[in-house]
């Protein structure tokens, strides 16, 4: 579509990207040697002690460490990144596939960044089969009456869908591209239409969760989710909306999705302008305590880079400059680049209430790495 963001950078921004990428490469090389094929989630006192492969192998974030490894393999050509990534894919994640009834809509996060990445980069046929297997699972979660993909498996949540799903449906677009079967992409498109109609509000903010009657498809409610309260504005949900609708536009060419991504982006930027680029957990949370979530900033910056590559030339600078402002803020105020310590982005919070606050969480690191590599034209497109 538009020009790569790496061709749009000023000399100063290109230099910043090069310096930051070098810091990340040193950090992830050290983590690769310490962590290997274990699956990290949250670092405590500078160490990834918990191995999610043991404690919760199907947890939705377990694709992000393989994703980091595959991005590093692509960026550096170093095969030592490929070995642990494929081990995770062939051992832990194959076990998750076998536990079929536990799979949910997050199969996109889990396998786009592991098996599908492997297929894209190495043409490993077994990885392609894994990707198509879980894409079929995701398509099977589609409710044809309500035209939405069911999020979770718990009884009573048959009609629930969430904005995060916009980052899972690229698995379906990939499956259609891979097989020529239009049904995968059609499910993704119909679900995106439902999210557009029920998640994105008039002011550009987003609901996290939307609930429908699974038998009739009628909208019922939009509960609080991981934000402060119902009707508030969970910042990571806004970030999923930016990136997810931008990707839906890239895959379909439907201008409604681009317009939605831009509206959510404008809302997000107006809010982080008040906090210097680091997002609050919820943009409508009380003034105190100030609880931040740098994950939202990393995801949004990556999504803004996506928009800078999709919009007409006259609009590109806005999204590129906001991406740079946010990435610089994260690097300056929220990162630990010391290779001796695990975890890069420190100021992460999984939710507003009863969550882990201001800790390093693995998927912030993934989106920061992907965004910085995209600035250099060195990232592999995994969405």
From TrEMBL:
Stored InterPro entries: 6-hairpin_glycosidase_sf, 6hp_glycosidase-like_sf, Glyco_hydro_88, UG_Glycosaminoglycan_Hydrolase
Residues forming the catalytic site: 106 (nucleophile), 164 (proton donor)
Keywords assigned by UniProt, alphabetized: Hydrolase
GO MF, one annotated term: chondroitin hydrolase activity
Keyword Hydrolase: yes
Pfam families with a match to the protein in the record: Glyco_hydro_88
One GO term of the biological process aspect: polysaccharide catabolic process
Protein family (similarity comment): Belongs to the glycosyl hydrolase 88 family.
Name of this protein: Glycosyl hydrolase family 88
Provenance organism: Bifidobacterium avesanii
């Amino acid at each position: 579509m538009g020009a790569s963001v790496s061709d749009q950078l000023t000399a100063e921004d290109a230099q910043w990207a090069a310096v930051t990428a070098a810091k990340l490469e040193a950090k992830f090389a050290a983590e690769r040697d310490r962590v290997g094929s274990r699956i990290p989630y949250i670092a405590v006192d500078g160490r990834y002690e918990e191995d999610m492969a043991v404690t919760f192998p199907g947890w939705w974030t377990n694709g992000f460490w393989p994703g980091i490894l595959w991005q590093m393999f692509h960026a550096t050509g170093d095969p030592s990144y490929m070995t642990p990534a494929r081990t995770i894919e062939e051992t832990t994640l194959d076990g998750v596939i076998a536990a079929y009834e536990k799979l949910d809509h997050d199969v996109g996060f889990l396998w786009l960044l592991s098996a599908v990445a492997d297929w894209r980069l190495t043409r490993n046929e077994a990885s392609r089969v894994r990707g198509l297997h879980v894409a079929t699972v995701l398509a099977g979660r589609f409710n044809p009456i309500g035209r939405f993909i069911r999020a979770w498996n718990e009884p009573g949540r048959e009609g629930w869908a969430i904005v995060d799903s916009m980052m899972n449906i690229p698995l379906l677009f990939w499956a259609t591209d891979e097989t020529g079967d239009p049904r995968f992409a059609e499910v993704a498109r119909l679900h995106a239409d439902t999210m557009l109609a029920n998640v994105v509000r008039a002011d550009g903010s987003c609901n996290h969760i939307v609930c429908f009657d699974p038998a009739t498809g009628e909208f019922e409610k939009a509960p609080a989710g991981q934000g402060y309260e119902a009707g508030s504005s969970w910042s990571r949900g806004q970030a999923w909306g930016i990136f997810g609708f931008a990707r839906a536009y890239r895959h379909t060419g439907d201008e409604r999705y681009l317009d939605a991504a831009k509206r959510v982006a404008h809302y997000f930027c107006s809010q982080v302008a008040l906090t210097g680029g680091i997002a609050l957990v919820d943009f409508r949370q009380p003034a105190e305590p100030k609880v931040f979530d740098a994950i939202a900033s990393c995801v949004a910056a990556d999504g803004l880079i996506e928009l800078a590559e999709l919009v007409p030339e006259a609009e590109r600078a806005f999204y590129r400059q906001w991406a740079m402002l946010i990435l610089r803020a994260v690097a300056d105020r929220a990162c630990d680049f010391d290779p001796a310590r695990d975890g890069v982005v420190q100021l992460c919070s999984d939710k507003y209430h009863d969550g882990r606050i201001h800790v390093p969480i693995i998927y912030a690191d993934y989106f920061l790495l992907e965004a910085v590599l995209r600035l250099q034209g060195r990232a592999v497109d995994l969405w």
